[in-house]
Each structure stands twice: as structure tokens, then as C-alpha cells.
Amino acid sequence: MKITFMGAGSTVFARNVLGDCMCTEALCESEIALYDIDEERLKESEIILNAINKNINEGRADIKCFLGVDNRKAALKDATFVVNAIQVGGYDPCTITDFEIPNKYGLKQTIADTMGIGGIMRALRTIPVMADFAKDIEEVCPDAFFLNYTNPMAMLTGFMQRFTKVKTIGLCHSVQVCSENLLKDLGMEDKLEGRKELIAGINHMGWLLEIYDKDGNDLYPEIKKRAEAKNSGEEKHKDMVRYEYIKHLGYYCTESSEHNAEYNPFFIKSKYPELIDKFNIPLDEYPRRCVEQIEGWQKEKNQILQDGKVTHERSKEYASYIMEAIVTNIPYKIGGNVINTGLIDNLPSDACVEVPCMVDAMGIHPTHVGKLPTQLAAMNVSNISAQLLAIEAAVTKDRSKIYQAAMMDPHTAAELSIDDIIKMCDEMIEAHGDYMKDFNK
Questions:
Q1: Does pTM surpass 0.85?
Q2: Which of 34, 51, 369, 441 fits 8 for a cystine, CB–CB 3.0-4.6 Å?
Q3: Cβ proximity of 419 and 112 under 8 Å
């Protein structure tokens, strides 16, 4: 069995996913192909993964490196699973551009990797690369499962599922820890064991629709009471946006408050700057986080490379559990991103939705959820419209679709005029240079 990791220079994430595989008996003897276009980062990942293989796996995995586009097919050839964690354009220059130009127009962002003009631009520079991946996969490993972790999740996964033949599933980190983190934050740790839940919606805006304790008691009444009390207190906390969702929409959301602050028109408003402090919203969080991660990784890397004592314990990331279920035919449940083939009745059929899926040797099987509460469907649709238009822009190479995607984004539309949206998009397309060559006038 062969596992190919695209974007293996994302060393921390590659270590987590592939370390998980080496902790799993059904996967630990796999051939592992590491692919990246950055030679230095690829070499770092190779060293660290070889150390994990030696320290926890008795060297049973066969790890090989493949550098650059010319070696991509070789990396993919005969793969059983392909994990995707690329970041096209990186922090510098592209992420910086995604924040600096909108800031000039008065458009503030927090993360900008999933929605908004930052998410749209990230999709447009990433989809052409993934289209090339898809061509190679269809040629050299047509039966492979493509496990996408790259954001913007719904746009990239939706493109792969609608416009290629690759067996694609979109995976996030937030579904599996959503209710656990909520209950811990509200002092309800005693309800964790044996809890039952249902989560569905779209990526980063999936909804905790139902949650019960082990005896079947509905936990939402107590959750709502405690969440409102915590948001009403004098002390600021990091999840104020999502607790406000609970108060006004009735349900908790999968992804963090810093993410969800920019997915709607409610919280980041130039007319009401006091909301930033009121809801403890970390503007420009992602660039700040990138700088910290780069500095932190340099320190960690030096320590690891000096003593070689790196080890690993299996994480909660879905990838290794999906692979294990397919290989062993022991079913496993995930929250996966798939095309809405009648799964959520009141969301568009071409939307990429996040729903419970069962995994076994026959593949990945999404489950029917039914209708979302109307207010939750409305929140999802406000994001889906921009996502679908961004995908259309990438497929048609029609610049006007970029403008329309930005116009439909709830936060962008609430802050900027149509003329400024178009000017901002034009400036960002130009600044991204060759990454946006398909849209040059």
C-alpha cells in the first residue's frame, strides 16, 4: 500500500498524519511518498519522519521523497491514498497580499483562508494546481482516495468532486473536537463520556444540531444557559462569537470564533468598531499566527534535528482512521465534506456540505441529514453562494465571476460598495501576478 503526501513540506501536519499512520498496525508498513516543491522543507520532513519511523515503528515504513513538478507523477504512481496539504503562494507573498490590500479598502479580516476575499483568492490560486494533480491521479493512480485538508475546504473539495474523476473527501480538524471543547469550556466535562451528537452544515460552519448525554438527556438547555451567562460576564473569552450564535440562532458551530467572525455581516463592522472589543475578535490573526508558527517551527526543528528523539502518538485527525477503515473493512464514522446529493434538503445540490459519513472497504458513504433549521440553512447559503461563484470563476476563467463571488460574500458586501469591491479584486489579481495569470486582462 502506498500513501502519497502532497505538500509534505508542511512538516508539522505531515508529521501528525503520517505519524498516525505509523501508529496504526494496518498502515505501518506502507510505502510513504513525500512530495513538495520546496527542497529544504521536504528534506526537513524526511528527516523527522524517518526519525519517527525508527523510534516508534521499527523502520517498517518505506519513506521516499519526490521534489518538484517533474517528479509528481512518480510520487503519485500506484498510490492507494493521497493526502493534500498544499499552500499555494505561502505566507509571503500571497497571505500578506490577501490581508494588506483589503485593509487599504477598510475591509478587515481575521483568518481569510476559507471565506471572504482572502478565501476567494486562495481558491483561485490553488484550484489550477489541484486540477494538475487530478490529471496525474486519473492517469497513474485512478483508484486512489484523495484526502483534502487544504483550505478553502468547500471551494477546493467542491471543485475536485464536481469537475474531476478523483475520489475526493474533504477533511477538517474541527468536527471531531467541537462538542468536546464546548462542554469543557462550559464546565460540563462530566457529560463527555458516552455523549451522542449530530453535526451537519458546511465546512467551518457545521452546526451541532443535537447533543445528548449517555442517558439520552438533551444537553442544549444547559449549554444555552451557561453560554449566555459566560458571554454576559465581565471577562472576555475566545469563543464569544459562537456563543452569540447559540443565543440568536439556537445552535453552536464547529469552527472557532475567530473564523466565524468574518463569515457573516454581524461582527466586523467599520460603523461599529466597538464590536471588535465586545466580542474579543482578533483582527489580522492569521498573519500573526503564521509569523509565530514560522518562529516556533525553527526552534522545534533545531531541537529535533539535534537529538533525533522525536516520537508520536496517534492524533484525532481523520486521515489514518479513514485509511484503516478502508483497508480493514472495519467501519468508522467521520464528518466529511461531500457534494450535496440530497443529503441536506434545504441547501443547493451543487454545494459542498459537511455531513456524517461512514467509511468501510467500499469507500466513503455520506448520510442523509434532512432539513436544517431555516436560520442555519440561511447562514450556510450566504457562504455557499460565494463558494460556488469562486469555483465558477476558476473553471470559466471569467474575471466577472470573481467580482460576483466577492459581492456575494456577506462580510465584504456589508462593508464595501460594488465599485470598491471591483477595484479591490483588480488590485489583488494584479498583485498575485502569475498565480492569477488566467485572469489577466
A1: yes
A2: 34
A3: no
Q: Are residues 102 and 129 in the same domain?
A: no
Rounded to 5 degrees, what angle do the CA atoms 114, 115, 118 make?
85
The residue type of 336 is G
Do 276 and 395 lie in a common domain?
A: yes
Rounded CA separation 390/158 (Å): 11
Interval 179-206: pLDDT, tens:
999 999 999 999 999 999 999 999 999 9
Record the cell numbers describing residue 287, joined without a space.
498573519
Q: Whole-angstrom Cα distance, residue 305 to residue 284?
A: 32
Rounded to the nearest 10°, the torsion over CA 359, 360, 362, 368 is -40
Between CA 199 and CA 341 the distance in angstroms is 17
pLDDT at 422 over 70: yes
Q: Which residues pair with 65 in a beta bridge?
A: 34
- 173 catalytically annotated: yes
20-48 tens-digit pLDDT: 999 999 999 999 999 999 999 999 999 99
By DSSP bridging, strand 62-67 and strand 31-36 are parallel
Selection from 124, 109, 63, 166 nearest residue 438 by Cα? 124
User: CB–CB of 148/336 below 8 Å?
Assistant: no
Residue with grid cell 472497504, as numbered in its chain: 361
**Residue numbers of the domain that contains 411:** 96-110+173-283+330-441
Q: Is residue 323 part of a domain?
A: no
Q: Helix 11-22 vs helix 318-328: angle between axes, to the nearest 10 degrees?
A: 30
CA-CA-CA-CA torsion for 101, 106, 110, 115, nearest 10 degrees? Answer: -70
Catalytic residue among 173, 237, 248, 411: 173
Residue with cell 455557499: 384
